[in-house]
Amino acid sequence: MRDVAVKAKAKLGKLPGDDLYNELIHESDLDRKIGLLKTHYSFLEDTNSKKDVEFKLFKNFYQELKSLDFFLEGIESEFFKEYFAIYEIYLIQEVIQCIMNNTLEKNILNLRENPFSKDLNIEIDMSLEEFIDGLKDSKYYRTLLPFINKNMDRESLIFLSSNALMKFYFRDLLKLAKKFKAKERVLIEDFIGELINLSNFEMLYRLKKFFELNDSEIFNYLIEGGKGYNAKRLKELSNLPIDEFLDYLNESKYKDIFDNAWYSHIRVNRKKMKLFKDEIVKERSTVLYVISAMSIIDTNIDNMISMLEVDESFTLSERYELVIVR
């Protein structure tokens, strides 16, 4: 195991155990829950609000990413950075949503405090065109440029620009994967392909269940490059009524993910967690090991924040359901 993987493994070893999870799940008072987190995370010592806890946990995660990237070189470092550039995309999506919903002034401090915002110009009164123009020197500019003059309603623009960014993200990862040597390239392509599958299935489910779209429109929103799902198979799935689509998934390893709309996103993330844990156990690729370790740590943050958000209105079983398997 290389030094960088050893360091990633050490970071995993610092994750809280089941005792802390159980205490958080059984506690309803926010102040006491924050107190429990302070016993495990020393950098939360002077923190007293959910917002500040979330910010400091994510800031620490960002610093951990930087510390690992320091030990990566060449294509491994490039791929590692690109994989976690998803947080830049999430931030860009959030800024666009704020601009279109006229809530930028209300959220601008939170947006600017995000550690991934250092290359973004975010001003209180900026228009969508001004924001996208500010990305002219970034890799996202050409993807977002067509949306400046799009004559479409607010919700459509938010959805379509977000979809375009996700397509760009996965396309870029697959392009970088081809730069690895043959054996590792296959492992990385399969890893990314599985993430694409989960993204596509979630998109298919949501579009078929909550929107009235024709099959060709649905297909256009899907991402090519999934493991075992080429364009032909994606088109076939797009043409299925939702009941037949769910029957198809229930005959595969993806069964039961969408049997409850409320928890479907959590169950998708549990599938991702299994993917990450498999890479940790198998240790077949250093860059996938490090990425998986940091993804597990990020999932732990999601779990912590979920536990802060629940109160006495949630039953114990509902609280446990919100925790993504560790």
UniProtKB/TrEMBL annotation:
Alphabetical UniProt keywords: Ion transport, Transport
Family under the similarity heading: Belongs to the V-ATPase V0D/AC39 subunit family.
Protein name: ATP synthase, subunit C
Native species: Anaerococcus tetradius ATCC 35098
GO molecular function annotations of the record: proton-transporting ATPase activity, rotational mechanism
Keyword Transcription: no
Pfam families: vATP-synt_AC39
Lineage: Bacteria, Bacillati, Bacillota, Tissierellia, Tissierellales
